[in-house]
Amino acid sequence: MPDGIVIIPTYNEKENIERIVRNVFSLQRKFHILVVDDNSPDGTAGIVEQLQEEYGDKLFLLKRTGKSGLGTAYIHGFKWVLEREYTFIFQMDADFSHNPNDLIRLYNTCKREGADVAIGSRYKTGVNVVNWPMSRVLLSWLASKYVRLITAMPVEDTTAGFVCYRRKVLETIHLDRIKFVGYAFQIEMKFKAYLAKFNIVEVPVIFTDRTRGTSKMSGSIIWEAVFGVVKMKIYSLFNKMTI
């Protein structure tokens, strides 16, 4: 059995899910895939179920009853994975904004170079974003700078969603105490790994905006991140933030 599994949360990703699954399974390095679907009305889960007939015990599906946020989808997936023997757990979008080929680079950074958390970083070597309008590039870049300023984390891309965790990181972080469900979930996971003194390494990647389907980003998600980061930092200063 492979020692790595890729968690892909989905909501209305029928245009992308089959391609991303086949692409990951075509890689030279073998991974399993867990899709966590939030009851997509477009039939995403049904497509995964059809693919399961082809891929058997390499492709897994968790179906949730409603759209409950990116963070809770990942937490649901993390808990499922920790009941099994995987050592390296990846989180990745379904829309090809994260290049599946980079999974191997993240894997090697943890497996061979000793990282506990490997981040597919858009901003480690400049700004590596394709097909985003300049306003969104600036929003994302400034958000990461803001988070770094507030938290003092030595991470350039604090909001990145393309990550590989060693199993021990997810076993150390109390997943039931993760507070944020949207954009800020990515920040909180990195911050707790940082507080626990895990070795976090950024791997430069090129982020390409989706060409199929629609973005799930919203104003409320952004504001959760803006205000949540300050609250998170204050809690950590007074030792009220548990890992």
TrEMBL record:
* All copies of domain Glycosyltransferase 2-like, residue ranges: 6-172
**Protein name per its UniProtKB record:** Polyprenol monophosphomannose synthase
Q: Which family does it belong to?
A: Belongs to the glycosyltransferase 2 family.
Q: What keywords are assigned to this protein?
A: Glycosyltransferase, Transferase
Q: Does the keyword Transferase apply?
A: yes
InterPro entries, per this entry? DPM1-like, Glyco_trans_2-like, Nucleotide-diphossugar_trans
- What's the superkingdom here? Bacteria
Pfam families xref list:
Glycos_transf_2
